[in-house]
């Protein structure tokens, strides 16, 4: 069964195409990473998949999620977990880390008067916080956490609904390299048979071993796709970034430098 299908998506802002005739699909349980230069359209594509951005309504555009074209947004938010840098300021609040994670069960920012929080909800929040090494800071307010700590909390929030798909847009940005490695291992554990994972990253070392496919983007278009061994090579990335790139690999983890 498909996780998502996007066909012929065009997104335009201020008269400029951010995405131009982009088509992509993934099956349930497939894991892929999207890489490319700044301004390539990677984050916009993830927002299109998640239906936070809607492309131009052309005759050729089509979008479906889990085999359905129409969704009630509140139901969709339970099936897709999303972490992105754009959430940082939105979630930098006086709610505690534990409250933010538990509120993911309601697709809300914190709680309102109509939300019913059961004891098992708090237990699930604690379980997810422990997975990202933030349980000891569960009572800290979000506006007192570092960027890296906040990203861990938001990852726990995205995972608390046990979603069918995780969209991770630079989810480990702001972490030092040991913490990035720890979080990479956590994300690897999320890669179950029936969960689709889409990662956007500028850092090849963030790409978990479970990733099946690499998507290369440039200037609002998908320019190539294939396996890690096919795409993560000196000559391929040098062409993508328009400068000489060297790629190294050790135990299934890749790095790149110029």
Q: Would you mind describing this structure in some detail?
A:
The protein is of the alpha/beta class and 258 residues long. The mean pLDDT is 92. The chain is globular, with a radius of gyration of 18 Å. The strands form three sheets. Strands 5-6-7-3-8-9 form a six-stranded mixed beta sheet, sandwiched between helices. A three-stranded antiparallel beta sheet has the order 2-1-4. The termini are far apart. It has helices at 42-49, 73-79, 97-103, 119-131, 147-159, 177-190, 228-231, 234-241; strands spanning 2-13, 16-27, 31-35, 62-65, 80-83, 165-169, 196-200, 213-218, 221-226, 246-250, 253-257. Strand 10 (246-250) and strand 11 form a beta hairpin.
Spell out the key features of this protein.
single chain, 258 residues, alpha/beta, Rossmann fold, six-stranded mixed beta sheet, three-stranded antiparallel beta sheet
Averaged pLDDT, please?
92
N-to-C span: 40 Å
- Report the structural category: alpha/beta
Strand order within the widest sheet? 5-6-7-3-8-9
User: What is the N-to-C succession of helices and strands?
Assistant: EEEHEHEHHHEHEEEHHEE
Please give the count of helices: 8
Task: Offer a concise description of the structure.
This protein is of the alpha/beta class and 258 residues long. It has 8 helices and 11 strands.
Please describe the topology of this protein:
Blueprint: E1 2-13, E2 16-27, E3 31-35, H1 42-49, E4 62-65, H2 73-79, E5 80-83, H3 97-103, H4 119-131, H5 147-159, E6 165-169, H6 177-190, E7 196-200, E8 213-218, E9 221-226, H7 228-231, H8 234-241, E10 246-250, E11 253-257
Parallel strand pairs: 3-7, 3-8, 5-6, 6-7
Antiparallel strand pairs: 1-2, 1-4, 8-9, 10-11
């Amino acid at each position: 069964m498909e996780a998502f299908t996007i066909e012929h998506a065009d997104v335009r802002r201020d008269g400029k195409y951010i995405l131009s005739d982009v088509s992509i699909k993934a099956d349930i349980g497939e894991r892929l990473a999207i890489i490319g230069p700044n301004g390539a359209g990677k984050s916009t594509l993830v927002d299109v998949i998640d239906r936070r951005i809607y492309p131009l309504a052309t005759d050729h555009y089509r979008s479906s999620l889990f085999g359905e074209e129409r969704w009630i947004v509140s139901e969709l938010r339970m099936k897709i977990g999303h972490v992105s840098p754009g959430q940082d300021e939105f979630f930098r609040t006086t709610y505690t880390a534990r409250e933010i994670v538990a509120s993911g069960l309601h697709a809300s920012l914190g709680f309102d008067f109509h939300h019913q929080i059961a004891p098992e909800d708090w237990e699930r929040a604690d379980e997810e916080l422990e997975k990202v090494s933030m349980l000891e800071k569960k009572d800290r307010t979000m506006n007192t956490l570092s960027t890296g700590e906040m990203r861990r909390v938001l990852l726990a929030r995205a995972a608390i609904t046990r979603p069918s798909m995780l969209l991770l847009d630079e989810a480990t940005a702001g972490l030092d390299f040991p913490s990035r490695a720890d979080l990479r291992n956590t994300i690897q554990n999320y890669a179950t048979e029936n969960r689709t994972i889409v990662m956007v990253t500028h850092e090849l070392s963030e790409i978990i071993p479970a990733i099946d496919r690499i998507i290369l983007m440039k200037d609002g278009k998908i320019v190539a796709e294939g396996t890690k061994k096919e795409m993560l090579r000196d000559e391929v990335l040098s062409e993508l970034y328009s400068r000489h790139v060297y790629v190294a690999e050790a135990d299934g983890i890749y790095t790149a430098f110029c």
